[in-house]
Amino acid sequence: xxxxxxxxxxxxxxxxxxxxxxxxxxxxxxxxxxxxxxxxxxxxxxxxxxxxxxxxxxxxxxxxxxxxxxxxxxxxxxxxxxxxxxxxxxxxxxxxxxxxxxxxxxxxxxxxxxxxxxxxxxxxxxxxxxxxxxxxxxxxxxxxxxxxxxxxxxxxxxxxxxxxxxxxxxxxxxxxxxxxxxxxxxxxxxxxxxxxxxxxxxxxxxxxxxxxxxxxxxxxxxxxxxxxxxxxxxxxxxxxxxxxxxxxxxxxxxxxxxxxxxxxxxxxxxxxxxxxxxxxxxxxxxxxxxxxxxxxxxxxxxxxxxxxxxxxxxxxxxxxxxxxxxxxxxxxxxxxxxxxxxxxxxxxxxxxxxxxxxxxxxxxxxxxxxxxxxxxxxxxxxxxxxxxxxxxxxxxxxxxxxxxxxxxxxxxxxxxxxxxxxxxxxxxxxxxxxxxxxxxxxxxxxxxxxxxxxxxxxxxxxxxxxxxxxxxxxxxxxxxxxxxxxxxxxxxxxxxxxxxxxxxx
Length: 505
Hints:
Shape: globular
Helix content: 25-40%
Number of helices: 15
Radius of gyration: 22 Å
Strand content: 15-25%
Strand order of the largest sheet: 3-4-5-6-7-8-9-10
């Protein structure tokens, strides 16, 4: 990793239908449908909306044989409508579905944690993909590692890398290079560490497969955009990433403008920034640089903090170098940057991508955003959101909410809004709102409470990783969730909710 200059990590080219990624190609943006894959008209219409928005790669869930076979109808109609969108099938538990989908789509994504390979199914899939010119994505999820990996490594970034490398080595042994790899997590710190460790492992073995970036279950609204920008921005700033998806619990076409904004923001990162003490930086192991335990925002007392302001076109590298070059290595630092963008969303995405990584890595101790177009209250809220997305200061409830897909069993966007309306005043709590049980329980493993679709109109509630009540009617589920929070002593009435924690240094 070069700390002094920005350089895209070199990767080989992978063709996904009419879209080529990797090499010197621009970072591609993509999304995923949330329609029922068996509903051809709805799926086609949504893919076309995503394509019109700029998303040239679209993924659909294929959780069973029926869905896998219907991909044929979806692709046929899409092509008849004049769209050459690259179509990706998302496979989970049934290897036979991957073989079905590979007959029709441009790329097949498998999750090593869920994909069985006891009898050479993966090798057979590679050969099938080679014959048709279909790409593969090895998509590791933090919350769904294989039992044999979990038992040895736990749900750690290291375990995620072990899972990915096992399948990548098979691809290399079979001389198959049309492979993309991803390391998704809803925890930005885990996600960034996993990708950086993966790059180290791949480089050590001479692998140059393209990398797809994303933060899973980021949520919706400004918080979802900020959380995604912190995680994706940290890696784009490192030159890592050939495709990205900003996962939002919203209409999937809403993801594309945010992803494109990030791509444009990192298209060029000029400047050379000397780093005299690289040994002070640990990109794959989080450690606090200073004694500050609660990072600050700029409206709070800043006595004892050094203010470092970025003025270059590469603020992350500029500020990182300035921090690593301090004469007093543990001197508390507030990182500052001005944004003249006219909208809250643009400032939020860019500031989160530029400054969030410095907090995520434990280098910075506070944040200061100058944004003439925003009010003081908007800036304060945004700064707190970035601190929370970087997992260094929690000032409000965190929602680990999936973007939904064809497996989702209820209106997750409306439900998330209802849950937020009732619980957003709670402090230091994480609530998982998940569409189904495929990855839901694993991806919300860090959550204090979970609300997971169990069947049409049915919800299962969790306390941590423990199922508390199964299959309750959805109309009862929110009240039952709040009662569960009360029973465990984590509930306060909105009028009694404490203010954000006071910073200390």
